Predict the structure.
Amino acid sequence: MSKPAFQRYKKFTFLVKHFFNKIHRFLVQADVYKHRFQQLSIPAEKIMVCGNIKADEAFKSVERLPHDNEILDYLGLNPHGKKIITLASSHQKDEELVVPIINNLGKDYLFIIVPRHLTRAAEIEKLLEKHQVEFSTWSKRKSENEAHNPDQNSANGKARVLIFDTMGYLFNVLKVSDIVFMGGTMDPKTGGHNLYEPAVLGKYIMGGPYYSNFPDIGEELVNRGVYNIVRDEEECLQRLRDWKTIDWETIKKEAAQAVDSRRGSVQCILKEIQRLIPSHQD
């Protein structure tokens, strides 16, 4: 139950109470949601924290990932020791924060922008052109059968950004990334996207202060130093410039532990469903 939904329900508790009383068991993702249901007059004994299915999905997805070299070849990337920064499921406000600082970072970085809505690729192209950032767009490279290396796919051979406008490959992109900027976190109305995926891969995560869609894992990742909040261009620029000071092994360990502690939700749910189904004797 998101915070906005909770606030709406709270205004009409007297109306929804009868409906809630008919529910035998509430299986929730985290303590924050348990507390919200309790505030809606749901008895604590009816509520169980089962964790998040996305944690189980993330670990299973890791097992199916191809080798890094295969992913890089598919993307047409050859980092040459550069750090790969991915804007994952990005929205306008995320891009407006990151794009203006790209040319200030020197040549140690390659950027991949994976927009949440693929139809926004042309909009992102215009933003990059406005800030004179060289880029390559995946769909155009594929349709025009361009050379595989994006460094060769711009007018002057200095592409800094790949706009990856194809669905279903984000998790693979995250695997070969060094730093992930999580999209949707610069806008409170959006509330961020799936933090489990970069965390299970042990990535250093950056983003805005708005991760209300994933409040429990978001808060823990912040406390563990995995998720690093930036609010403006200056903070974002400084974080990226300080990448040599990052303890990558510690980040990887802390991120994986945060996700691992939330596994087992599927088994928990099935167990509770079975408990409520009457047993039948032959």
Observations:
- The mean pLDDT is 89.
